[in-house]
Design a protein that fits this description.
single chain; mainly alpha; two-stranded antiparallel ribbon
Length: 396
């Protein structure tokens, strides 16, 4: 049963980076249905395995989801709140099932492989759209159904994961992991996402700082890939993409970040009116329909502004406590693993600042993988399994 649950999770994680490419009209993305199946099989495995185990982060996470459900009773847009509660429920179940099903280093690396391979699918679709001239926005390209900014972070997260696999895996696929940083950089430049460019820079720092422990062949490969990138990227990537990316410094210091600062200010005003419980989970866009600057549904473009506005200080506090509980385990990990997840978290934090990723699969996936990796590295710190339906709380 563990094998079946693992394979279902593997397939789900594989679909996550390209989730918007295939949609079922009137029902949603294919990835959502794969995820429901994977979570269902995972929960069945947990029940049959005779153990329910939690890390402290799961406690804060389930309280966060419960508060989102309760916010239905004071939400200004109940339909959006119900949809968001369903998303949170599925994401939390995914977060917990990862921790419960993945028990071996090989399984954990396999899940990372699934994400990186999924990134190749999204990257290939982006390149296909570029070659066919199918733009997401003017001179900006992305995989079908994706916002270029979102996609840039999805792919940037894969850079440290792929490079970590290049150290840990010995199969023929190791070349896919070694080549991935170059592919990701090229595709992210095609998106012309300025915030995503910062994510790329952070991801490449992991490559740079781990090179001293690599073999001479890997060092030579990295040098060759760097030279190839300097030659091929200016040839393939449109000049307009570079022009937009070149405005990053000006936009950060003098601009409105594509009107984001105005959105955040409006969100702050709504938060000030409902500071404790917010306007209801998923209701940020609805809260700006009567705002003098927008008069329409608007995405918050910032995780912390989004949660604070929708679920108040209480919701934001629960989410931050979950994050802190996850980050706390990093300092107990070996240097390579700590560097991997600190890099991934840094990229994720950049995504938090530019996008409202509290409902995105990548957020809950990363948090789940960190505490799962910790559990695998230090199994002695986890309680011994008990009979079926006996709840076990992680002691640290």
């Amino acid at each position: 049963m563990n094998r079946l649950a693992y394979l279902a999770l593997w397939l789900y994680v594989f679909t996550v980076p390209w989730e918007n490419i295939i949609t079922i009209p009137g029902l949603g993305t294919l990835s959502r249905f794969v995820g429901i199946g994977a979570v269902g099989i995972g929960l069945l495995y947990v029940l049959l395995s005779g153990s329910l185990r939690f890390h402290r982060a799961h406690i804060w996470g389930v309280l966060f989801v419960l508060l989102a459900a309760l916010s239905y009773f004071w939400s200004i847009e109940t339909a959006d709140t119900l949809n968001r509660v369903f998303q949170y429920g599925l994401l939390f179940a995914f977060f917990w099932v990862l921790f419960s099903v993945i028990d071996h280093p090989e399984q954990l690396r396999g899940i990372l492989v699934a994400y990186v391979l999924g990134c190749y699918v999204a990257g290939s679709d982006t390149i296909s759209n570029f070659l066919s001239g199918s733009e997401a926005y003017y001179q900006r390209f992305a995989a079908d159904g994706f916002d270029p900014g979102d996609l840039s972070f999805v792919l940037a997260l894969g850079i440290p994961m792929a490079w970590y696999l290049a150290f840990k895996e010995n199969s023929r696929m190791v070349w896919l992991y070694r080549l991935y940083p170059l592919v990701a950089v090229m595709v992210i430049l095609l998106t012309a996402a300025r915030a995503g460019l910062l994510g790329v820079a952070v991801g490449l720092l992991f490559v740079f700082f781990t090179l001293p422990r690599a073999s001479w062949r890997v060092k030579a490969l990295a040098t060759v890939l760097g030279l190839v990138a300097l030659w091929i990227i200016p040839v393939l990537v449109p000049a307009d993409s570079f022009s937009r990316l070149a405005t990053l410094s000006e936009e950060l210091t003098q601009g409105s970040l594509n009107d984001r600062t105005n959105i955040w200010l409006a969100g702050w005003q709504n938060f000030s009116d409902n500071p404790i419980l917010g306007v209801g989970a998923g209701a940020f866009g609805a809260s700006l329909r009567d705002h003098e600057l927008f008069r329409d549904w608007v995405a918050p473009h910032n995780l912390f502004v989004s949660i604070a506005t929708e679920m108040g200080l209480l919701g934001l506090g629960l989410f931050v406590l979950m994050l802190v509980s996850v980050v706390a385990v990093l300092w107990q990990m070996p240097a390579l693993e700590r560097g991997l997840w600190l890099t991934v978290l840094a990229i994720l934090f950049l995504a938090f600042m530019a996008q409202n990723w509290e409902w995105r699969k990548q957020t809950w996936f990363v948090l789940g993988m960190i505490i799962t990796h910790w559990k695998i590295l230090y199994p002695a710190w986890m309680p011994v399994k008990q009979p079926l339906l006996v709840l076990q709380a992680e002691k640290r």
